[in-house]
Write the structure tokens for this entry.
Amino acid sequence: MCAGRLTEWGLVPHTIVVESPVHEYAVLIIERHLDTFGHVNNATYLDLFEAARWDWITSNGFGIERIRELQQGPTVVEVTLRFKREIKNRQRILIRSWVESYEGKICNVIQEMRDETGELCCDARFLCALFDMQARRLLAPTPDWLRAVGMKPKTE
């Protein structure tokens, strides 16, 4: 991530070196995922990636009930998708998710969508943050949130 962008957002660039295990989420592509060309609609990729992120944080104790209790939850501030290979009806895919880094308040999440042969179909980079739902602002990562994304921070 560019330190200039963090400065524009008023955030102090500080990278937390992390060990983030890869979370895996399997999906069967069905008819509602398709567009008129017979492959997965471009907007549907975002929906599938989001479902994988929800599965990831929920499995680590940060589901919707915890979010409501804390009044804190994840938000996406930027996304980049790269489409590599078509995904068609009734294909099984695996979405792999992990944290690459945490800089200030911004988490760099990488997600990959792979077919049954392991071929990369789409990859994505999400810049995410923890959002205070009452104060309506980004928060520094809390220990609960770091656990939710499978992080074990190390001091540089």
